[in-house]
Amino acid sequence: MNRFEEKIAEEGEAGLYADGIDIIQVNVGLRCNQSCAHCHLSSSPENEEMMDWPVMEKVLEIARSTGPEFVDITGGAPELNPDLIPFIKGFSAMGIRTQVRTNLTALLEPGYEGFAEFFRDQAVVLVGSLPCYLEENVTAQRGEDVYGKSIEAIRILNSLGYGTDPQLQLNLVYNPGGAFLPGDQADLKKAYGKELHNRFGISFTNLLTITNMPLGRFEEQLKRENQLGKYEKLLSDSFNPATVPGLMCRHQISIGWDGALYDCDFNLALDIAMNHGAPDHIDKWKLSDIVQRRVVTGTHCFGCTAGRGSSCAGELVAEPQ
Question: How far is CA 168 from CA 21, 43, 60, 172, 282, in A?
Fold first, then answer.
């Protein structure tokens, strides 16, 4: 039993168990046109890992048999997968809604300019990474020119109805610029809305706050700054039992680019596949062994239960512990 499971045992939980599959999250590849300082997957233009079409076909079959509320497509930059368009069309043909996590700048890459219109035509929900409304903070995390390109991409999406048409959701993602927890999601949404509208005339639907996990490049940064132990203590000391029922691992699964099965995207980053009797690859798929599986946990799980909580859909509770 690790420290996280010891903590939830204090709350009367004999392990962490899934409660159905509402969302299927699919990582279609680790290649990205950016190399962000906080990326828990260490994605970059040099990454070659990419989901191929045979694996995508198996994912489509799983979605057909499972009937999730929606499929959440992530990366890397999902747009860089050459089979993304037929993949999304496959879900649309089944009446399954799709959501794509975009870094926004990929929409401006040569040869990818048509993705914005395709997403609109398929009514894809977009989750766009914009870790701050201030240029200097975005530059520190994501590199030079990323902020300006992100604003340009949002303007294009706004012109297509994203962020203004209720049927075309554009949700932005905030994550802290250092070793601290996100602030109140509602307050940050107001700040983002005011700054982005007043300065650029752009709109978005929702803001999602996500805690930085001490994994990947962010972990490396914490080690360089001799802050890893301090940050991990902050996460564990900020444990909020009210977040446990809504943890994303209890309501979704994560499928890696090679078809491996994970309880969440962070376990994917650590290459910790499903276990405790659940299959670890889509080739061994058995729904009955997955829907109420015991989740594989670790000390990194404190990142999802700290303060207001954190998930791919933003904070989990309105108030911290």
Answer: 24, 27, 23, 13, 31
Q: What pLDDT does 128 receive?
A: 97
Residue 177: domain span: 3-305
126 token code pair: 């977009």
- The domain spanning residue 99 has which CATH number? 3.20.20.70
Q: Is residue 204 part of a domain?
A: yes
Confirm if 151 and 159 have CB atoms less than 8 A apart.
no
Q: How far, in Å, CA of 117 to CA of 121, rounded?
A: 6
Is 311 inside a domain boundary?
no
Each residue of 138-172: pLDDT tens digit?
A: 999 898 999 999 999 999 999 999 999 999 999 99
And the tokens for 140? Answer: 């520190």
Cβ-Cβ contacts under 8 Å for 213 (sequence gap 6 or more) = 40, 219, 266, 269, 300, 303
* H helical segments located in 112-180: 115-121, 135-142, 146-159
Burial of 84 (0-12, 13-18, 19+ CB in 10 A): buried
Block residue for tokens 């260490």: 42
Residue 70's H or E segment, with its range, is: strand 70-74
In a domain, 318, yes or no: no
Q: How many domains does the chain have?
A: 1
Is residue 282 domain-resident? yes
